[in-house]
Amino acid sequence: MIPLSINNIKKNINNIFKISSDYKNSIFYCIPTLHNSTQNTYTKKEKQKIINQCQKNGIPIVEDSIYSDLWFNTEKQVPMKSLKNSDNVLYLGSLSKTVSPGLRIGWIVADKNVIRHLSDLKMQNDYGASSIPQHIATKWLNTYHEKHIDKLKVELETRKHIFIEALKEHLSMYGSWSGPSGSFYIWFKFSISVNVKTLFNEAIKVNILIQPGEIYDLNYKNYIRFSYSYIDKSDIDRSLKKLSNIINRISI
């Protein structure tokens, strides 16, 4: 596996793949909308350029669109699968981030031959998903999903604003962040020297869970990821104040 950071891809969008490299049997996996953990999103133009370069190099694309329903703006993001020359794109969707991870239900949009082959592999591996959650998911998608997503986005955006105000109050002296355009993560970069592993362990002691950046990439040792999906809104300010006190103590 060769990790490619979104920043590097955006910077070298016209020449992502090295000419001398052998990409035989390679797959380009990406979360093009609201990337976890950075929250970056490719523009429509960038998506098309990625598709074209992958086509040229014979590389199939796995487009993980698990967060796209949580895009806050009224104008929805365009999936890579809907763009030109996207026969090489396998589009993945799921209810795990918007409804219930316990359903274990997702879907793939791809060429019929690819779907047929993947279905065969799925059957050989675990005999396929249970029909009960599939029926539940079908009923949900056809009846409730759009209204649920609209309400969910309003709630998440409210939480985002509360969280960012608390960040400004308690953590702005320690680093920076950008307000996400959707989903429920905030990617925080420290501007001071902090041992993030120590911070993680100390935060756990007071029931605060953060995600060290190096979980996602070893080059992100001065980053942490926040999630505001489960925390009570009334606890956000108090929790970030506690975290600020810990940072102040361990960074001295």
What does this structure look like?
The protein is an alpha/beta fold and 252 residues long. It has two domains: 121 residues, Type I PLP-dependent aspartate aminotransferase-like (Major domain) (Aspartate Aminotransferase, domain 2); 97 residues, Aspartate Aminotransferase, domain 1. It contains seven helices and eight strands. Helix 6 crosses helix 7. The longest helix has 26 residues. It is globular. GO terms for molecular function: pyridoxal phosphate binding; transaminase activity.
Main attributes?
Aspartate Aminotransferase, domain 2; four-stranded mixed sheet; 252 residues; Aspartate Aminotransferase, domain 1; alpha/beta; 40% helix
Shape: globular
Task: Give the helix tally.
Answer: 7
The total beta strand count reads 8
Largest sheet: number of strands, sense, barrel closure: 4 strands, mixed
What is the gyration radius calculated from CA atoms? 20 Å
Measured between the Cα atoms of the first and last residue, the distance is 38 Å
Provide the spatial order of strands within the biggest beta sheet. 1-2-3-4
State the CATH topology of the largest domain. Aspartate Aminotransferase, domain 2
> Any idea what the CATH superfamily of the largest domain is called?
Type I PLP-dependent aspartate aminotransferase-like (Major domain)
Pfam families: Aminotran_1_2 (PF00155)
Cofactor: pyridoxal 5'-phosphate
Protein name: GntR family transcriptional regulator
Keywords: Aminotransferase, Pyridoxal phosphate, Transferase
